[in-house]
Design goal:
mainly alpha, 2 domains, two-stranded parallel ribbon, 11 helices
């Protein structure tokens, strides 16, 4: 089964697409068994794995057919875990950033470059850079996925993200396009990068910041795209004193990837 899934991914199928087809087939089999799903009571037991995702899709199709569907989650879904992990990480980064910034010389405004002019221009520049980098990262990511289909952890992370994007699109959009860019850039380009730069210079500061930034995302598959993104964000931070540029670049990068995933 693993070999079949990996071959399907190399052929261009997504985990969500396979889940959709499997769930629809299950719903059709249930309807054939019952004769008609309309007004029939159906209980769907959903586990934490990909088969549980098939069950959720089947429940949706049966509900659309008129069945009275109840869904029992036997364990937290990967999508729920990813969203909670993202929210927790974002919150912790913001709290840590605020605490460290208060201790830093000059305070929060000085550390984040809030007093610098041209924040609007920095944001436009950052958005353009993020939009330009995202297609390159997407191409590298697709090559990596084709070359290294990966193990169960990689599949669950990928499936969890796709499933979360379907179940709670507005929450995922907020988390990846608003909350995460602000929290991560405030810490990495607002605090870490200037601190490293003052001691080691631009080049080593960019490398050290990247070494902190990449592991946070828990994805060996996206090692090269994340490294590229981090180095570019450090460059944007260097061009403009304000972190609005890196925030805009990071947000546009994530948005472009989300749209590519949805497509």
């Amino acid at each position: 089964m693993r070999a079949i899934e990996e071959a399907a991914f190399r052929a261009g199928f997504t985990a969500t697409g396979l889940m959709e087809n499997a769930g629809r087939a299950i719903a059709e089999a249930v309807r054939d068994h019952l004769g008609s799903a309309r007004a029939r009571r159906v209980l769907v037991l959903v586990g934490p794995g990909n088969n549980g995702g098939d069950g959720l899709v089947a429940a949706r199709y049966l509900h659309d057919s008129g069945a009275d569907v109840s869904v029992c989650l036997l364990a937290p879904r990967a999508a729920d875990a990813l969203v909670l992990l993202g929210l927790a990480t974002t919150g912790l980064l913001l709290l840590l950033t605020m605490r460290l910034a208060r201790r830093a010389c000059g305070g929060i405004r000085q550390v984040f470059g809030m007093g610098a002019g041209g924040t609007g221009l920095a944001s436009l520049f950052g958005a353009a850079v993020g939009f330009g980098v995202a297609p390159v990262a997407m191409a590298v990511l697709k090559l990596a996925m084709a070359r290294f289909p990966g193990g169960i952890l990689q599949l669950r992370l990928k499936t969890g993200l796709e499933e979360a994007a379907i179940q709670a699109p507005l929450l995922i959009l907020f988390l990846m396009v608003v909350a995460a860019p602000i929290a991560e850039e405030a810490f990495f380009r607002g605090l870490a990068y200037p601190a490293f730069r003052a001691r080691f210079g631009v080049t080593l500061a960019s490398l050290f910041t990247t070494l902190l930034f990449v592991p946070l995302h828990l994805s060996m598959l996206a090692l090269i795209p994340l490294t590229l993104l981090s180095l570019v964000l450090c460059l944007v931070r260097e061009v403009h004193a304000s972190i609005t540029g890196p925030i805009a670049a990071h947000a546009m990068y994530n948005l472009t990837l989300l749209l590519g995933l949805a497509g």
